[in-house]
Amino acid sequence: MAFQAKSPELRAVDRSVMHYGVPAALFPVAALGWWWSFRMAADMRADGMSGMAMSTESAMSMAGFLVAWLAMMIAMMLPAMTPVVKLYAMASKQRRVAPLSTFVGGYLVVWMVLGIPAYFAWRSLQVPMADGADWVARLAGGSFVAAGIWQLTPLKDVCLRHCRSPISFFLRYGGRIERPLGASRMGATHGLFCVGCCWAMFVVLVTIGTMNIGWMLALTALIVTEKTFRHGERVAMIAGVVFLLLGAVLLASPGAINSIT
Question: What is the distance of C-alpha 91 from the center of its chain?
C-alpha cells in the first residue's frame, strides 16, 4: 500500500500527544518516587526519635537504602528528563526503536551504582549526625563549597549543555537505539552527563541528611530549572554562589546547620 503523508491536523495531534502525553506518563512515576521518599523520611525521623545514638547494627541495610535512593532519583531526576524522553518518544513514532524502558533503565542503573558509595557515606555519618558533631556540620559546609565551585566550572557547563540540548545528544549518541543494548547504552550515557551536572548536589544531600525532603524539593527545582529553562546556565551560576555562601557560613559556624536542615 502506498505511503500516505499525514495531514497537518494529524501531525498537530501527534505533537500534542508528545508535548502533553510524555509528562503525563512520567508524572505518576515521579509522584510514586516522592511518596516513597516521604515515607522513608518519616521512618528515619521515627528511628532517630526512638534512640539518639543509632548504632550501625540498626542502620538501614544496603538493599533498603538503594530502594530509597532509587525512589529519590526517580522523584528528583525524571522531571528534568522530560525533554530527552519526549525526543525518544518522537523517534519511536518515526522508526523502530527499543522500548522506552530500556533507555530509562540504562539511565537509572548509573544512579544506582552511584548509590553504593552514597550508602557507605550515609551510614558512616548517621551516628555523628545524630550526636550533633561539629565536624559533620563542617563536612556539610565543605560539600556546599565543593558544589559551589563545581557549579562554576567549565566541566559543569559541558555536562549541562548536553542535558539542555537533547537533539544534539541524540545525534551524537543515538546510534543503534533500535536494539535494547544500544538504547540502554544511550540511557547510561545520558545518566553519566546528569551525574556530571548533579553529583555535587547529591554529596550535599548526603552530608545534610539523605532524605531531607526540604532540600530534595529545593535541589529538584534547581535541577529542573538549570536543565530546562531558558536561562538555566545563569541559574546554575547563581546557585553556585549561594552554595559557596552557605558553605562559608557552616565552616565558620557549625551550629548554623540546624537552621538549614
Answer: 24
